[in-house]
Amino acid sequence: MAKGDFGEHLAAMLLSQWTVQGQLFDIVMIGGKWPTIDVYAEISSAGNQKMVCFFQVKSTELGYTKHTHRRLKIQVPKDKVNKLSAYSAPTYLIGVDYKRLNWPTSVAYIKTIRGSYLHGISSMETTNVVNPANLILLKNEVEAFWQAINPSAQKNIYLTNF
Description:
By secondary structure, the chain is of the alpha+beta class. It is built from four helices and nine strands.
């Protein structure tokens, strides 16, 4: 399996893992079918309101920077990160430290992508491992985003020609 494919499968598996609140996300892997988004996720318990978020996954075998605050070496071009950031939904980067010879020890980290980027991303923080505790925080963050903008109310009042 190619490094990128492995990273996308690992990210989908980790986003689908069980937490103390149950399985929080329903996942669809998009991968190479869409240039910007690799994983589409809906909050499982959101009911009729579709609370979604999008993920770009980058895998690397380059390891970590030597700085005091170790960062995962990944490459995301400026245009790709800005396209991801432009979506009107929560967007995230998942960086996978891919261990080809011992793949079960591969680790994934998550980073919010928002705003405008003047440069691409060449490394990312390793403070937010994709684990059950951080999935709960992620779910709460995505719910807060969708509750704040209330798209259901907007859908019922916008003008349409059809």
